Amino acid sequence: MPIVYHNGRFIESSQAIRSIEDRGLLFADGVYEVVRYDNGRPFAMRPHIDRLKRSLGGIELPGIDCEAFGPWSDELMVRNGLKDARVYWQVTRGDTGPRSFYIPEHIEPSITLIAYPAPPVDRKAFPTSGGAISADDCRWTRCWIKSTMLLPASLAKTKAKSAGAIECIFVRHKPGLDAHHVTEGGSTNAFIVRDGELHTHPNDGWVLPGITREVLIDAAHASLGMPVREVCFTLEELKQADEVFVCSTTQLSPITSIDGHTIADGNPGAITTKLHFAYLDRIFDQQ
Amino acid sequence: MPIVYHNGRFIESSQAIRSIEDRGLLFADGVYEVVRYDNGRPFAMRPHIDRLKRSLGGIELPGIDCEAFGPWSDELMVRNGLKDARVYWQVTRGDTGPRSFYIPEHIEPSITLIAYPAPPVDRKAFPTSGGAISADDCRWTRCWIKSTMLLPASLAKTKAKSAGAIECIFVRHKPGLDAHHVTEGGSTNAFIVRDGELHTHPNDGWVLPGITREVLIDAAHASLGMPVREVCFTLEELKQADEVFVCSTTQLSPITSIDGHTIADGNPGAITTKLHFAYLDRIFDQQ
Lengths: 287, 287
Fold this sequence. Notes:
Two copies of one chain form a homodimer.
Chain A: E1 3-6, E2 9-12, E3 17-19, H1 23-27, E4 30-38, E5 41-42, H2 45-58, H3 69-79, E6 85-92, E7 110-117, E8 130-136, H4 151-162, E9 167-172, E10 181-185, E11 189-194, E12 197-200, H5 211-222, E13 228-230, H6 235-239, E14 243-247, E15 252-258, E16 261-262, H7 270-285
Parallel strand pairs in A: 8-9, 8-15, 12-13
Antiparallel strand pairs in A: 1-2, 1-7, 4-5, 4-6, 6-7, 9-10, 11-12, 11-14, 14-15, 15-16
């Protein structure tokens, strides 16, 4: 039985339970993070802790000691005998008594950490590529907050899987703009390569400020000497791109088609592949 | 200790627990309803069951016997010795194993019903009025689904309460329109009275198809002989309205100011008050 961290204790997961009146269940009143461990070492712990702080600020949930999530994660890995895992962190506002939209002053947050075992990464292996489908970005407008309101992503990603695709690409008509633009993937940030430049949606609140996104932007500059533009692009521009990929904490994935339309020659792009290896280098070299 | 209905059993609420991996917690993958009971009788049970079905369809969660929620609610009232209550129904997709965005084919939905006691309604009492504040409607775009993704409403309603207001009024710039429009309240539908007509946002997917909303539209026609238009209006038009009110299953509430701007003479409007009593008549006469 896996061990989880749950409200101050390390316990068997079957004993880690939530009240039916936890605000996480009643109001999706919570935020989360996922941190990767490879060969026993966490990657980008600092940015994850910092983003958790920003998300908690975004939902006005004060008083959480975010610095403790690092040591809790480390101990969870040891207690489960894991070297490679994705550690899920969740903070909800907890059970505050009979259901009420109004957030009371005194709250008892619920904090849970779960370590999901992952296969060890072969840093010489090429990335797994696949097609994507576009999906209406029907999510809330504060996607910079990593909230648990993931139903739209869950539905769209499930639809993608049913269509044989590896990701959905969200497309949104933002107010005041004259066209629909690609925002990001269902659980990834989306990039295109175009005329030797790397393009991804700006960090303007409509996308998650992805930690792998930042790592790749830095790697594109530092390792490939490549210009990066944080700029909106349309689905049509994505279709016509030289290369397309999505990235998350888990992986970078070349996208070889969108809605059945083949991108470039249908193979993972050269720059995408270089960035994949640059990401793995950073994970294993802990730069 | 209150008795709740939980996955096939009537049990003490402290024993009704959810797994930390329930999709309701991980992905806000659930929908809900609230049904009122007055003097032992449910109001508008049929529309609540029908809306639950539509919501479940909207999140692609099949196989739920929605007809059973009526008898379960009735029994919950009896077991708790209640005559007046608001019965909360929640269906999530349940614990489907290790966290994954992808919805598996085999699921074990979690169903919980909680009866919250309510004070008996005095059908002769005037409604409780108050001010409102406007709030950016940052919610997802499928508000016709009564999903548990209520964090934006919880935050905005809490902000309203802090400001001494009784509700927040959501305002959204819908794609393709040239202005911001009032959609609805944080947990209510919003109405204005203007030149002898009742106006409320159309049921176009951007608002919840409120059951009280339908009752009041019907009552305005049938009891007051009043024209009703389902039409968008701006916050400025709301400010200039003759009367403003919001409604939910719980109550109809006259809104006497918005963002500190007094509406009309600052008193509950005559038509609003008539509709309040028409609503109570329908509840008690079960028309």
